[in-house]
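Please review the protein record below. Let me know how this chain folds according to its tokens.
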Amino acid sequence: MKYINFIIVFTVSLASSRAQVAKTSIEPALEFNQILTKRVMPVHQLFDELLQKHVSNDGFVNYKSFKTEYKKLLDYIYVLSLMHKNESFLTLSKEEKLAYWINAYNALTIDLVLRHYPIRSIKDIKDPWDQRLWKLGDSMYSLNEIEHNILRKMNEPRIHFAIVCASYSCPKLLNEAYAASKLEQQLNEAAKEFLNDPERNEISENKLKLSKIFKWFAKDFEQNGSLIDFLNLYSNIEISAEAKKSFKEYNWNLNE
């Protein structure tokens, strides 16, 4: 499959473009030509670098250290907005769109937490998923709009293991950006790791104690069969079709 190697090119006036980018409490830290190490850069490079620096291999986020580079995160959101506004955005492949929106969701969630940090839980923030705080291209978005109106409509249930709600019971935040060129591998690994993590799911042949993600989004996992059919694609243990299931309490403590 061919992918468009989407590159942001510095051809805009910073003064005029800033009025159209993500509405955040702090403007981007750098002039746009300082964001780019050359005159062009891969669109998700900034986020990839931040994740590698501030997220552990176990998916825990060091929000305290992340906050020291908060303006770099805002630069990345700025780049996302420019990408969304570019006419080439309409021609992206499904894989490129999935990578874009997964990265956007995770970056905006981190931004939301950093605006209020220190906090114990994302639920300490009023209406965290419904606040329309970010302008990407010409539209304002909330986290719920990205998840329910965009990502879930792309018929890819593995997005639920990739987008992270900043809580302990969520799937772990990958410490690299999602990329179209390796998206299938990244989503498969995220699904296997989350499902087989005994802290998130307890699995045996005849008994399941599952994350509530599988309850909240049951229809997403039943597009091509039963929930157990889906689980058996990624489980290390073969699950009986008659297995009894229950759901674990969700721990909303911050994933740090």
